[in-house]
Design a protein that fits this description.
- By secondary structure, the chain is an alpha+beta fold.
- The chain folds into two domains: 13-193, 3-Layer(aba) Sandwich (NADH Oxidase), CATH 3.40.109.10; 198-224, no CATH class.
- It has helices at residues 13-19, 33-43, 63-87, 92-107, 128-136, 139-151, 166-173; strands at 55-60, 113-120, 155-156, 179-188.
- Strands 1-2-4-3 form a four-stranded antiparallel sheet.
- Helix 2 packs across helix 6 and helix 3 (63-87) packs antiparallel against helix 4 (92-107).
- The chain is globular.
- It starts with 12 loop residues before the first helix and ends in a 36-residue tail after the last strand.
- The structure holds flavin mononucleotide.
- Residues 21-22, 24, 97, 101, 104, 157-161, 197 line the site of flavin mononucleotide (FMN).
Length: 224
């Protein structure tokens, strides 16, 4: 855990991006309030549709509230975890990931802070660009938060399992009807390591001019 001196965020951007990953195993040691607020201040530098800045962040430190979120997470995990293990038989990498998710399910109530990223305002199912703009107004800020946490030496992950019931999440957090919980970010000092992460070659997800024309298939950018 760092000492009381202010945490610096001067990690090179590329290093923060390439080593940021879902860090689920976290120590219970506390995080300074000033640091938590700074992380959210950096998250707020993200864009929102029409610059509405309609985000709301709930930092949960109360053990009773954490316990309720952890319970909801375990409920969803008891279903998805079983399905995931069956589907991942013989895939050691996937089984390692599921072990980490299992660890998180058993320890979520012990992490020092859980941030719930929410949006204020109506969530319209149609037309598509309107519904995309709704969730598109929270996830850039969540990514900022994850990168800032990485640069500060904290572990974090974007999770949604505790939100399987929006009704229940609203009740646990005391959210009004017009505030939608969108993502949960448990934060703490990491027990394990950060990235690098593994991703598909960039050429496999990029088309040129028309979808499916993949001149760079199988290739990396060559810049790294
Ligand atoms: C929308 C979304 C929801 C997610 N929900 C969960 C979740 O409920 N529980 C969990 O353990 N991880 C969750 N994840 C994390 C992904 O499993 C993780 O980002 C992915 O495995 C890549 O991990 P890596 O960055 O360490 O390679 C979620 C990620 C996203 C983008």
């Amino acid at each position: 855990m760092p000492d009381a001196s202010p945490v610096r965020f001067d990690m090179p951007l590329e290093e923060a991006i390439t080593t940021q990953r879902a860090v689920r195993r976290l120590k219970p040691d506390p995080i300074d309030d000033a640091l938590l607020l700074r992380l959210i201040e950096l998250a707020q530098k993200a864009p929102t549709g029409s610059n509405a800045q309609n985000w709301e962040f709930v930092i949960v430190k109360d053990p009773a509230v954490k316990a309720q979120l952890a319970k909801r997470n375990r409920q969803a995990w008891s279903l998805y975890g079983g399905l995931g293990r069956r589907a991942s038989r013989g895939d050691p990498k996937m089984l390692r990931l599921l072990d980490a998710v299992q660890w998180q399910a058993e320890h979520l109530h012990e992490v020092p802070a859980i941030v719930i990223a929410c949006l204020r305002g109506p969530r319209l199912p149609w037309p598509n660009f309107v519904s995309a703009s709704f969730y598109g107004s929270i996830f850039p800020s969540v990514q900022n938060l994850l990168l800032a946490a990485r640069a500060a030496g904290l572990g974090a992950a974007l999770i949604t399992l505790p939100l399987w019931s929006t009704f229940s999440a609203r009740r646990i957090l005391g959210l009004p009807w017009n505030v939608t919980p969108c993502a949960v970010i448990p934060l703490g000092w990491p027990i394990g390591k950060y990235g690098p992460t593994t991703r598909r070659p960039v050429g496999d997800v990029v088309s040129l001019d028309r979808f499916g024309n993949r001149p760079w298939k199988g290739k990396a950018s060559g810049a790294a």
